[in-house]
């Protein structure tokens, strides 16, 4: 099962194998273990909510930088509260990284909400 839009891809194959998840951008992709995918699906809405919460304390012209991590991956948001890019870095084994542009985040967040993996 793969969902995709302009500048993003997310996928899942439920059969047992080392890498069950897939994340991708415009010109990059990485395979994820089940645990890495679970962390990504948990942290993405959390970092979005943190950006929303922090934005209440910023002036309109102020940019935001917000980071969240687990033992398996790191997420970083950077930009304006309603308009930020997102970077993901895997921190175990393969050490992959990728970035989604500002335009991608609203669709990626919607896809994660409807992406029931577990």
UniProtKB/TrEMBL annotation:
One of its GO terms (molecular function) is DNA binding. InterPro entries: DUF1818 (IPR014947), ssDNA-bd_transcriptional_reg (IPR009044). One of its GO terms (biological process) is regulation of DNA-templated transcription. It holds the Pfam family DUF1818. Transmembrane segments: none annotated. Signal peptide: none annotated. This is DUF1818 domain-containing protein. It comes from Cyanobacterium aponinum (strain PCC 10605).
């Amino acid at each position: 099962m793969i969902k995709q839009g302009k500048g993003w891809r997310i996928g899942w194959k439920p059969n047992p194998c080392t890498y069950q998840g897939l994340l991708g951008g415009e010109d990059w992709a990485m395979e994820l273990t089940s645990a890495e995918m679970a962390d990504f699906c948990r942290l993405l809405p959390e970092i979005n909510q943190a950006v929303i919460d922090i934005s209440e304390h910023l002036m309109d012209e102020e940019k935001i930088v917000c980071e969240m991590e687990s033992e398996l991956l790191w997420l970083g948001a950077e930009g304006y509260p309603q308009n930020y890019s997102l970077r993901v870095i895997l921190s175990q084994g393969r050490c992959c990284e990728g970035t989604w542009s500002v335009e991608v985040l609203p669709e990626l967040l919607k896809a994660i909400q409807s992406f029931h993996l577990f």
